Amino acid sequence: MSRAGAVVLTALDLEYRAMRAKLRSPTVHWHPKGTRFEVGRLAGDGCRVALGLSGKGNHSAAALTERAIAEFAPSAVIFVGVAGGLWPSIGLGDVVVASHVYAYHGGTSEDDGLKARPRVWEIPHRAGQIAQHVIRMRRWAAAVPGDASPTAHFGPIAAGEVVLDSGISAQAEWVRTHYNDALAIEMEAAGVAQACHLNDALPVVVVRGISDHADGTKVATDGERWQPRAVAHAVEFVADLVPELVNGLVAQSAPDSETPAVVSSGNYNVATGNARVGVQAGTIHGGLVYAGAPARSGGVEAGVDALRDRLRDAHQENRLDEAVYRAAVAELDGAMSRHPNAGEPILSLMRLRGLVADLPDVARAVADLADAVRGAS
Length: 377
Fold this sequence. Notes:
Elements: E1 6-10, H1 13-20, E2 23-30, E3 36-42, E4 48-53, H2 58-72, E5 76-85, E6 95-103, E7 107-110, E8 113-116, E9 119-122, H3 125-137, H4 139-142, E10 152-159, H5 170-178, E11 184-186, H6 189-198, E12 204-212, H7 218-223, H8 226-253, E13 262-263, E14 284-285, H9 294-297, H10 299-316, H11 322-336, H12 344-355, H13 360-376
Parallel strand pairs: 1-4, 1-5, 5-12, 6-10, 10-11
Antiparallel strand pairs: 2-3, 3-4, 5-11, 6-9, 6-12, 7-8, 13-14
Helix pairs in contact: 1-8, 2-6, 3-8, 10-11, 10-13, 11-12, 12-13
Organism: Virgisporangium aliadipatigenens
Domain Nucleoside phosphorylase: 7-238
Pfam family, one: PNP_UDP_1
């Protein structure tokens, strides 16, 4: 398994190429069954991203999302591309982030007509909070090429199995009747959302640039090159979102230093192969600190040893490439060569945490060591 902070998937090659341009030194990563991914780091932030092309449709999107999750164990999945806007207030080139995903083709056919049987996936709360923060800050909009000034919207997206390009067809009427609050319509989000749901509700964010209004004008808007323009806007949003999302999810997984665990003795576990025993416990009162606890229980020296072990393991497991591993070890050595009272170790550890932000277990060990250093100062 090769870790990535986030997996980003697209349906179209146009979308893939735009997202790839945001990655620094992307390298090809082949799945054993033939799927081609590229892995690189976002310029500036350095967050590790695995990029894949799913193709059109919910079924292929679901299959490739499942494959990417198993291959890269990401903190989050993002699907980026174009969509049709369903409301006049949603302008061409605007960005829509899905608060909900509707699979609108579910139903039952009875004598008196077709009855809707909707399926809905809601964005996880923390991911939704982060996405709305990125919308408010509008850093992504400042990076949009040209003089465009797109708006980002947070609301439901409808995902089906056909391209909607009519405002008066039976399908258009079906969507208006049963999914009236949907801001945009597309063909992959339901598959992606289902795959993430089946992986312990892994956070997923669907980001769509509006390239047409799904009303019969698609040929005209495509001729005006709204697809590449909408893709460029959505990709800028994703480039801003990924580090905020990954860092926010790492913070969520960090242990609560104010509520240490009380663990009873007398339990015995055996780990074989690459498995590790995280906790051997009978009765636990309060919060449980499990990965990296030596930094709090055994002081700075134990924390350094634990962190060094985690860095080495991550490197051996190909979760840290050689350059990042060497930089992380150098920061750790630099931090520990200074006296804790001087304050410089914390700065080194902050830089180190930035290097490993997409590896929650290692980032947690850095935080534990920083706590121990502060306690020793």
